[in-house]
Specification:
By secondary structure, this protein is mainly alpha-helical. The protein is built from seven helices and three strands; from the N terminus they run ββαααβαααα. The chain has a three-stranded antiparallel sheet. About 7% of the residues have low confidence.
């Protein structure tokens, strides 16, 4: 791993690191931010405002004590610890550094590429370019069942 993508912070006498997220951390973040309205302009300030009530949980996901694994954390306990030990300046620094460690455009490009590949495969298999064929909203299990009126 490139040392330039590892950021370190001293918080309450302990050293924490922020590294590029692993898949499990992306899953944790997804669960935390599920249902939140993401701002169109992704800036540290807009994200901090949008995530204000869950920012301690997000910090607990992205920060890991030095020489420890991201999987070996009690997220609730770490979130509470960070909420009462970090200064607003440290929070802003961690949020800003997040974009250096995890280039969002790379992740979005990956998602777009995968989506295009799936759409292309479905189009070739069915001979149709109807997007509803692969729409999870149209075919998902979460759809409300009819009451049989």
């Amino acid at each position: 791993m490139d040392k330039s993508t590892i950021k370190t912070y001293e918080i309450a006498g302990k050293t924490y690191e922020q590294r590029p997220l692993v898949f499990g951390q992306w899953q944790q973040l997804n669960r935390i931010i599920d249902g939140l309205e993401i701002p169109a302009a992704l800036t540290p300030r807009s994200l901090t405002g949008a995530f204000a009530d869950r920012l301690d949980q997000i910090l607990a996901v992205v920060l890991t004590e030095k020489d420890k694994s991201p999987r070996d954390k009690d997220l609730a306990q770490l979130a509470e610890h960070l909420a009462f030990e970090m200064s607003p300046e440290q929070v802003a620094e961690v949020v800003t550094d997040f974009f250096d460690c995890n280039p969002i455009h790379s992740v979005l490009n990956l998602v777009v590429g995968i989506t295009e590949k799936i759409t292309s495969t479905v189009t070739q298999a069915t001979g149709s370019n109807n997007a509803s064929l692969c729409s999870l909203e149209e075919t998902g299990l979460n759809e409300t069942k009819s009451s049989g009126e």
